Amino acid sequence: MPSNSKTILITGGAGFIGSNFVNYIFRKYPNYKIILLDALTYAGNLDNLTPEMKRNDRFRFYHGNITRADMVNALVEESDVVVHFAAESHVTRSIYDNTIFFTTDVLGTQILANAVVNYPVERFIHISSSEVYGTALSDAMDEDHPLNPLSPYAAAKAGADRLVYSYMHTYGIPAVIVRPFNNYGPCQHIEKAIPNFIVSALQNEPVTIHGQGLSSRDWTFVSDTCEGVDKILHADLDTVKGQTINLGSEEDVNVLDIARMILKIMKKPESLLNYTEDRPGQVSRHIACAKKARNLLGWEATIKLEEGLEKTVEFYSNNPKWWERYLWMKELWEKN
Ligand SMILES: NC(=O)c1ccc[n+]([C@@H]2O[C@H](COP(=O)([O-])OP(=O)(O)OC[C@H]3O[C@@H](n4cnc5c(N)ncnc54)[C@H](O)[C@@H]3O)[C@@H](O)[C@H]2O)c1
């Protein structure tokens, strides 16, 4: 095996960010082997992965649950690096039925972290979330911002985040905790705001805004996140080991303005905007301080919001078959 080869175990790599990351790593590093572990929940979709990769010996897929310790142990044992994306990831779902969020996000992470203790790897990259911070108490949220999770999803992610932190200190695992801010881009499930707005507009249906749409988020295009995780994967281990690192664009834009930008790109009228009551558990403002990522990794988000939204609109416009399969679910969650 060439000296620059690695075997990377990627959990949740059939989901939105995970699949973008798997495709990116496969393309960029011709000597790397990828083991993908994914339970293929409603959010996982093997069509997100390139046919070229699925046919290649460097890629192996395991259809399985992160909570299955025997399988997780065996996969970690043969890996050099673990990148852990697998999670239940939707705030609104977590409000109505949250048990699976704690099972997957917290206990799943515990099982994976135990495997890393028992079968040491070069590094373990845990994908946490900016949701752990709750609403911004300071203008730009750095990694020392208090953790005030506001939804069961955020609480589960905070539990996993602190679990990994404790394992670094108790067992000395070589972990890095990554806190991406709101990602958007190709292959994001239509339950999430941006694809939901685009898909509604494509069908000339109401674009539903919860409340006044004034809560703002730091929107980061998914390829920027992939590049950030790549840099964490390849940085000098002493530079990143034990660190918690935000990945965000450092700009916040409110949900209503995002919907308006999308309608403008799609040349659709603002009369499609439709306001309904606000949902509980939502943060009012998120804005990243990405200074640490800049200093440690030389990373910063490069895709401007307008450009990222154009690319995202292009994906959903060109791939109706990709999202049409989820429409029946949209009806279900809009009724509840
Ligand atoms: N999307 C965002 O804006 C965002 C922002 C910050 C952090 N994150 C975090 O990034 C990660 C990926 O997010 P995403 O938006 O791609 O999520 P996603 O919901 O699109 O994908 C999650 C993937 O995990 C898989 N999965 C779920 N439960 C599993 C289990 N028990 N065992 C194995 N696989 C399982 C699913 O099948 C799916 O492929 C998550 O940890 C999420 O919390 C996401």
Layout: helices, strands, pairs:
Elements: E1 7-11, H1 16-28, E2 33-38, H2 51-54, E3 59-63, H3 69-77, E4 81-84, H4 91-96, H5 99-118, E5 123-127, H6 152-170, E6 175-180, E7 182-184, H7 193-202, E8 207-210, E9 216-221, H8 222-234, H9 237-240, E10 244-247, E11 252-254, H10 255-265, E12 273-276, H11 291-297, H12 305-318, H13 320-324, H14 327-335
Parallel strand pairs: 1-2, 1-4, 2-3, 4-5, 5-6, 6-10, 7-9, 8-12
Antiparallel strand pairs: 9-11
Helix pairs in contact: 1-8, 3-5, 5-6, 7-10, 7-12
The chain binds nicotinamide-adenine-dinucleotide.
How much β-strand is present in the residues? Answer: 15-25%
Small-molecule binders here are:
nicotinamide-adenine-dinucleotide
What name does CATH use for the topology of the largest domain?
Rossmann fold
Unreliable stretches (pLDDT < 50, length at least 5) are none
Can you list the strand order of the major beta sheet? 3-2-1-4-5-6-10
Estimate the helix proportion, in percent: 40-55%
Order of helices and strands: EHEHEHEHHEHEEHEEHHEEHEHHHH
Question: Tell me about the biggest sheet?
Answer: 7 strands, parallel
The CATH class of the largest domain is identified as: Alpha Beta
Structure annotation, total helices: 14
CATH superfamily of the largest domain: NAD(P)-binding Rossmann-like Domain
* Alpha carbon gap, first and last residue: 53 Å
Gyration radius, rounded: 19 Å
The count of domains is 2
Can you tell me the overall shape? globular
Class by alpha and beta content: alpha/beta
Output mean pLDDT: 96
